[in-house]
Amino acid sequence: MPAASYRAKFVGVEPVEANQFGPGLRWVFEVAAGQHTGTRVSRTTGAVPTLKNACGKFLMAVSGKNAVGETVDLTTLVGKVYLIIVVQRPEGGTSLDSVSVLPAE
């Protein structure tokens, strides 16, 4: 997947087995427009959101809430379209970097 910004549907969050960093969550999005329509993009984060970690930033972006610690039912957000940013990784490949609400058209 080339580094770029994409309109993508939120598919959901899946639990990930614990590794050296502990258990995690895989945030999954599906590109909704353009040449890469249907391509799934994901990122694994820690399982506990904070204001500064990727889990917290993704949670705040998809939920529209500005505070970590609130209960959010992510299943109600499945299918909603967001703007995702995929970046080139220094070690090679690409990575889902950020998620945000689409700007008003």
Q: What tags apply to this protein structure?
A:
105 residues, mainly beta, five-stranded antiparallel beta sheet, 1 helix, globular
Provide an overview of this structure.
With 105 residues, the chain is mostly beta strands. Helices cover 10% and strands 47% of the residues. The protein has a five-stranded antiparallel sheet. Strand 4 (81-88) and strand 5 form a beta hairpin. It is globular and about 35 Å long. The two termini are 26 Å apart.
Strand order of the largest sheet: 3-2-1-4-5
Strand content: over 45%
Mean of pLDDT: 91
Number of strands: 5
- Unreliable spans are none
Output the structural class: mainly beta
Helical proportion? under 10%
Overall shape: globular
- For the termini, the CA-CA separation is 26 Å
What order do the SSEs take from the amino end to the carboxyl end, as H and E?
EEEHEE
Main beta-sheet annotation: 5 strands, antiparallel
Q: What Rg, in angstroms, do the CA atoms define?
A: 13 Å
- Helix count, DSSP H or I runs of 4 or more residues: 1
